[in-house]
Amino acid sequence: MHCILWLVCGVTLGFSATDHPIHLSRDIAYKSGDELSDYEREHCKLDVTAPTDTKGFATLVWFYGGGLKRGDKDMPSEYVHEVAASLAKGGVATVTPNYRLSPKVVYPAYVDDAAASFAWTVKHIAEFGGDPHKVFIGGHSAGGYLALLVGFDPARLKPYGLTLGSVAGIAQVSGQIFTHYTVREERGQSKYAITSDEAAPCFYVKKALPPVLTLYAQNDMISRAEENQFFVATLKAAGHAENYSQRIDDRDHGSVGHNIRNLDDPARLAILNFIAKECANR
Hints:
By secondary structure, the chain is an alpha/beta fold.
């Protein structure tokens, strides 16, 4: 496994832990057009939580988990606002989109929404003071899966005039690396019929990809930690150099993502340090 010692040691590389005042802008539509469905018009909105005392900051587009079937940026149990505020206090603006969910839609609708929200951020984050060349993407569980597909498959961003080079880095927490089990179920397959096709992040593994930080829990759900370890090893085998990982101890599948809201959480610090390191490289 490729470990990042600068994360383990707790070294900070440019972001303050708690100092930045922040502002929340809510319910901004990231898709437009007469062809949108009522569901898209209602649901495809995002929030921007940004530091107010600095300019040119990095931004993380962050997707919540929920198996592609449930979740909402405003749902208290998802802690999305708290996670966004925690990261923004560290100097990283956080964009938190809603995306359409199964079974109201099927693959690739939710991936398309994820790509659209990333493209919106690149286009508009300068209006909030951010640097469009420092836009990262990430998420927890199903959100990590979405982030990886957007950041690995160039076809997702091509309609917006963007490339994988537009992705400053990917910070994914306990994401599904193979074709998501909800996608398999939509196809009539067993939830446990492991598949790797165009709907799987690992399908796109190669040397030339954006930097990746993979975090997973010591007590993650069955096979998820191993799936993430396999992913890290496969990236390494492909020669992907900026491939970092860390196991977060004393966490389960839910708390490894939700606890990022705590200022001293090791996953939070790992994400902030990863972003700082990659910003210094751009």
